[in-house]
């Protein structure tokens, strides 16, 4: 039979083995796992997480799966995945890839939940776990390459809710060792659970996109394991009857090569960006640019004196959902070029605390926001691989100071060092875990390949 | 069943097992659409399944002291239907049989959220958030139609709409302009022109102007025209040959139908595919004279006589046959070996909104469906309760009947 795109994906998921993971891929993916856990832990202190957890507790009697930051609380596997997915994306602090999506949050919670679900005799080891995680990432990346529109910052559907759901299904199917046919159906079922519109970005509902992606992908795999069947051509392009193509205006799928000689994991060539502060990735360019112009300004004026500034010009790409002159909530603030630039100028840094209620509504900050104008230079494309951020201070004196950032620290072109990544993790985890636990997780993830029972994580 | 806890809602037709409201809504919604036997509206969607299963499950989750009346249920139900209809009117592409997203997964989720928000008596802001949250769960691609997953579209619509309303009740917030924005609900359509709802004193419900179609057999609505036309052709064939239908006299069967790719299946291999096949339904109706639930059993799907007839069947797509449930037609033309042709045409089948089922026939369908699953008293109880829904004080009687309990005490509640 002719190889369909869908079939090739199912075969890939089924046939992937630990030996297929290169050193680079292993290393990068372990960094992602650690960062994702840390972000989930700190995320368990948010209001949106609180709502999700309260909701899920209504339903769990076969409670076997752990919840980030809540020792002693267990939920059913899918609801634990949901809650942890919400935590991971609650502060927009999780990783970002190119083409654009938040890959880890959609996959890791499902795997953690599933590993606790399996009976002791069939617990996956650390290597199985790492492999399944990478299968989940790879599927997401490959799907995004089917549409050129996926290379740019999204406008219609929020990518984690589209590719993330299938990534979760693929990863779970791998962990559960489903047959090739079952893997195929898992993808098909997941497609019917995918897709959330962009309009909910910058609201409290956005974290649900990742929560649902990971949970519903897990559900899809569980249903497939129980014999449910979907369209075997879900990823192929069938004119007149959309499958996965429904989520894109242009869709050109390609079969996936079998793992082994002809196949290279995308993570090998394209690394992840880790965020240094909890806000949309686009903010990171603008903040780095703002920090550099702030330094110039301090050298110029002796201290940061806002009264000397007439206008603040931001040169940014066009992207409606992150262009907010006066954000009024924490979620909006995380999605506002203007806010992040001004916070960086005012405070000399942007961190967790920058997004608290009091910080958002500070008088001095509002005054700075009043001075901001936004420009969209033509060469500044809305694409995480190509965009830049420029902040110019037009002073009353007539002088102009400019700071520009092409690649912020944490971007894949300038990855976080091991120390920086660990610092972020320790800082996040310390909100909810004691030091011994924190160090234990670091060690566990670093030696994931040697772990005999991944549910220990 | 894996995730049940100590709640609380009925699985229709099952006394032995209960599930939390979310999962009860899910499985009952799946059941409603499992055979493609549920209602269809114009613009195209299956409106009731997602709303009813969510509402009934939710109604059972209220604490004992808080009773939901039949009128509350009826109102919430209509809110859920209306929201779906209004959303469908925001896009011209919704008027035709879908090609990209399966409508129940899109508007059904929103309808379920709206209905549940109503039953939960959420305030205006919470209702907005319920809709916003629901939008992030909406949408499933059409390619899963004619597979086992399609029923899950309705099950998930019910469950997710209910979940959205519950999350809104807990204070979760989404984008308050979710229906206004192209990047909101507009994400599911290529042309999207939302309008505010009328606020007149006497609200003009869409159901007033536009009824639903109720199916007589469990298959995609478009096949109903085909079945009617094929049955009439069979009658003519039988009359003209002493009440015998000899299949080997048939040379060719031509079906003139609108172009609907996912219902064009020359050789369906499963029950789900057979329910989405013009060709299968035409041949079944030619063989048996009429369609029923039994037409889709494995034996019937694979019988040699049918397979033989399928081989002789072709489709044609006349340009004037638009893929819209409001305007499509079907012609069945059988050419015999002796050169004669017998044809039949159907523009409006019995059960379509232009020719609605009579009360007796609707009841007959219900009874035939419920037979063997619910005891007679429960069946009659449901019919009685639904007809008098406005007067029912405590709609939990409906759930009690649905669980298959036949108790003497119940008539008092009515």
From TrEMBL, chain A:
Keywords: Antimicrobial, Immunity, Inflammatory response, Innate immunity, Lyase, Mitochondrion
Key word Transmembrane helix present: no
Natural source organism: Tichodroma muraria
Subcellular location: Mitochondrion
UniProt xrefs under InterPro entries: MmgE/PrpD_sf, MmgE/PrpD_sf_1, MmgE/PrpD_sf_2, MmgE_PrpD, MmgE_PrpD_C, MmgE_PrpD_N
Enzyme superclass (EC): lyase
Subunit structure and binding partners: Homodimer.
Protein name: Cis-aconitate decarboxylase
UniProtKB/TrEMBL annotation, chain B:
Protein name: Cis-aconitate decarboxylase
One GO process term, biological-process aspect: positive regulation of antimicrobial humoral response
UniProt keywords, alphabetically: Antimicrobial, Immunity, Inflammatory response, Innate immunity, Lyase, Mitochondrion
SUPFAM superfamilies membership: 2-methylcitrate dehydratase PrpD
Keyword Lyase: yes
GO MF terms held by the record: aconitate decarboxylase activity; protein homodimerization activity
Catalytic function, reaction form: cis-aconitate + H(+) = itaconate + CO2
Cellular-component GO terms for this entry: mitochondrion
